[in-house]
Here is the input.
Amino acid sequence: MWAVSLHPFFISWQQAWKQWLEVENISKDHMVNDEIRAKEVRLIGPDSEQLGIKPIREALQMAIDANLDLVNVAPTAKPPVCRIMDYGKYRYEMQKKEKEARKNQKIVDIKEIRLSATIDEHDFQTKLRNAVKFLNDGDKVKASVRFRGREIAHAENGRKVLQRLAAETEEISSMERAPKLEGRSMIMILTPKATT
Here is the structure.
């Protein structure tokens, strides 16, 4: 009974806390208004004009008169560079740019294909079709041959299988990593060729 009645409050409290933490993390990017501790700052106006070196009190008063914020954009400079701007609007635009950049970036996955040193023709064709599909989707392909028992003595058979896979897909892929023996497995990585 109590858990049911407190549940909506708990969720709204969690959401409020999460939003507050995000605002805190964003505001830590730049020192704003009273957080600036320097005695003098190089001031840039709201229209990007240089206003020269001013005492911090005068710079803060100019920002308050313009109904804007004083933001420290270069804290390591001597004296620190501050700009008069609408910090809320600036922060919103930066979040929008970050979101757009995340949306446009392609996440490349690595798909694995496991082969055998003694693979039959039909099985090889099935694995080849899967590799071609992954490469056409823009993903990398990690082809591995696992050696069981005494197969490790004939590692060249596994190398031939991997080289054949690379040769069959050479028009759509390039070899990022040549076949290399690691423990009881031989691994090769193929990347899709850039489409122009």
In short: Residues 12 and 18 are 10 Å apart (CA to CA).
